[in-house]
Each structure stands twice: as C-alpha cells, then as structure tokens.
Fold this sequence. Notes:
The chain is mainly alpha-helical. It has two domains: 21-120, no CATH class; 135-165. Helix content is 39%, strand content 6%. The longest helix is centred in the last third of the chain and has 25 residues, at 137-161. The radius of gyration is 22 Å and the shape is elongated.
Amino acid sequence: xxxxxxxxxxxxxxxxxxxxxxxxxxxxxxxxxxxxxxxxxxxxxxxxxxxxxxxxxxxxxxxxxxxxxxxxxxxxxxxxxxxxxxxxxxxxxxxxxxxxxxxxxxxxxxxxxxxxxxxxxxxxxxxxxxxxxxxxxxxxxxxxxxxxxxxxxxxxxxxxxxxxx
Length: 165
C-alpha cells in the first residue's frame, strides 16, 4: 500500500507572545514555561549554530519547532521536550538544554529522522508533513555519482557503437 504524504499546510506568523505551558517536576513542584523562557531557549539553543546547524533564526515560523500550527499548544516534539524537562527541573536555559539533548536522538515525526537530524536539516521534528530544507550529504553524493555514471556510460557507449569496423 503506498504511503500518503501530507502537503505542507499554510504556515502563519507566530503571535507576539508565545503561550505559557505548565508542568510538574517530579509530580510535586509546578512550573510555568513563560514566553520569555521559550524565547531564551529558542535564542540560546535552537539559534545556536554549534548545537543546531540549520539557520532557524532566518525562519519566521521557527516557533513551530515546538508549537502546533495555531501556536496555542505544543506539537509532538514540544511535548517530548516538556516531558523531559519535567524530570529535570525548572525552565532555565540550562535545564531546557538538558531536556533538548535528552530527546535529541529520539525519532521525530519526519520519517527516517531523529529530532536533532530533522532540526539540522531544516525540518520541523514535530510534524510528519515537514521535509528537510537541506538535503543530507549522502543524498547529494548519491546524485553526483548517478550523474557521473550516466556521463561515463554515455561516453563509453558512444565509442563502442561508433567504431569503424
């Protein structure tokens, strides 16, 4: 049965403030991740090119890395991040960075990609319709090899069939 891929829905610009999300640390302490906390995490982690190699800061909808399409709740990746944070502590950048790394190698919603690999290639890890903006090097190398192979075969066949007998 063929796999159906959803097309990218229209992406709206984020609101001026991101929603606050409540969570419990060890089921006892209640914390709220404020819009400021989210912005600090996005700036210090997701926009840090030594952590995530894709330039998300140039993307107006980068908040969709964490939030759903309405920017009112979390997507699958954002939920995983908050679940990891709930076992670490308060929503400081240091703790949110630990939560980021705790879920980095989990499978993303992008078929065949981990969360970090999806982020590094410009795909939103929380959405199955998202596709990498940057093709992995293996795909590029494969495409180059195919072109070189076609040129080589064409060259060889030209001389094989154009020999004078």
